Q: What sequence folds into this?
């Protein structure tokens, strides 16, 4: 007879949920108890929040399952922890199709925002299978593993909620591309660096304000990029080449730029700069940061002075996308294995061509068209979208002898 001495039907599985203060030896004690019962482990989940442990273990149920329950309860008591033993039938259910990683970034991340986000996920019939914290400082980043809804449909639903709640939300299909070696193609002005190089050069010609106004309009998509670029470059006629050194020395990288490149290079990622700016600056940035590829416009220089002209074809909106495809092909990668990061209208084709297009502190036109947007002022926050946590970044830097600032207590 398949049952216990009282005729109660024996369950197929037991779910053990252990909670209490985390300390060394908790897991080993529980599994030693399970080992003596000869059960099989079907699933395990464990989290630690502020040194509070939640350990869930799904095991096959032995014939005398009540004896195992008593043994587990005794072990938990000796550990000063609480345990719940739930009877059931069958293995843990498989996750449904339509699987996504939903990364939420906030500064701060309020409970009201999370309530709205998870509510929208539930409204479309999806399920949150797992939640993992990716970072707690200087931003809060949370990764939700979601199943049961098409990623593209979920992206559209959550984009509206992100704008309403004032947080960043990235939705990506849960596939192997997220873990593979990829090419990251970055815009330079107002993305990799703070500010616009052409405006800095224009200050040397006395046209800083005029050029800044045209640049802003071009980045909003209100002007033809090539036409506006040539008209701005004309104003640089006569500027001495020494201005390049002065501008380069004044450049301020986006916070987290060096960290992004340093950490991902260790993982085998390749990087490219594709800019509507100028090779006299971008080539030096690429060399300084260890960037593999670089493409930008070249300013003509004659007798140590800028002529106000550009050498060769202009790297415009279409040229940026073309550069991304050429660099990917050189590495033997598909476009799906590329990530593009930019902020202006001339980045739109590049963002659309990439497997993942990220609008970084971008103009509204660009945010609306990109796969996702990051609006916090930290370029390395993009690594959270790739499944890399702050703790992993800091541990990798520590191994390499790089000291990172400690977060506030």
A:
């Amino acid at each position: 007879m398949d049952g216990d001495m009282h005729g109660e039907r024996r369950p197929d599985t037991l779910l053990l949920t252990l909670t209490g203060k985390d300390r060394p030896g908790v897991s080993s004690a529980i599994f030693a108890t399970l080992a003596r019962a000869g059960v099989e482990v079907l699933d395990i989940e464990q989290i630690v929040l502020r040194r509070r442990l939640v350990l869930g273990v799904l095991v096959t149920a032995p014939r005398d399952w009540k004896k195992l329950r008593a043994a587990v309860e005794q072990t938990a008591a000796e550990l000063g922890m609480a345990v719940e033993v739930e009877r059931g039938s069958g293995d843990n259910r498989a996750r449904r199709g339509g699987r996504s990683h939903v990364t939420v970034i906030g500064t701060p991340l309020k409970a009201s925002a999370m309530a709205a986000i998870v509510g929208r996920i539930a409204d479309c019939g999806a399920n949150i299978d797992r939640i993992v914290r990716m970072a707690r400082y200087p931003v809060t980043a949370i990764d939700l593993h979601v199943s049961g809804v098409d990623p593209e449909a979920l992206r559209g639903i959550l984009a509206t909620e992100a704008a309403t709640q004032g947080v960043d939300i990235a939705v990506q299909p849960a596939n192997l591309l997220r873990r593979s070696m990829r090419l990251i193609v970055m815009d330079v002005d107002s993305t990799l660096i703070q500010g616009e190089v052409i405006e800095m050069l224009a200050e040397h010609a006395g046209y800083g304000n005029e050029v800044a106004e045209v640049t802003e309009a071009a980045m909003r998509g209100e002007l033809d990029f090539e036409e506006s670029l040539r008209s701005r470059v004309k104003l640089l006629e006569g500027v001495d080449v020494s201005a390049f050194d002065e501008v380069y020395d004044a450049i301020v990288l986006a916070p987290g730029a060096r960290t992004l490149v340093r950490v991902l290079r260790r993982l085998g990622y390749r990087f490219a700069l594709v800019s509507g700016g100028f090779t006299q600056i971008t080539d030096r940035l690429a060399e300084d940061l260890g960037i593999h590829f670089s493409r930008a416009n070249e300013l003509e220089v004659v007798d140590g002075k800028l002529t106000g002209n550009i050498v060769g074809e202009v790297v415009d909106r279409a040229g940026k996308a073309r550069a991304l495809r050429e660099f990917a092909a050189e590495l033997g990668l598909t476009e799906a294995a590329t990530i593009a990061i930019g902020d202006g209208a001339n980045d739109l084709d590049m963002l659309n061509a990439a497997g993942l297009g990220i609008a970084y502190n971008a103009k509204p036109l660009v945010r609306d068209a990109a796969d996702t947007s990051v609006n916090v002022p930290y370029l390395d926050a993009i690594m959270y979208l790739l499944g890399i946590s702050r703790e992993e970044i800091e541990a990798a830097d520590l191994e390499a002898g790089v000291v990172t600032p400690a977060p506030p207590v």
About this structure: Residues 1-6 have pLDDT under 50 and may be disordered. The CA atoms of residues 58 and 342 lie 46 Å apart. The radius of gyration is 27 Å.
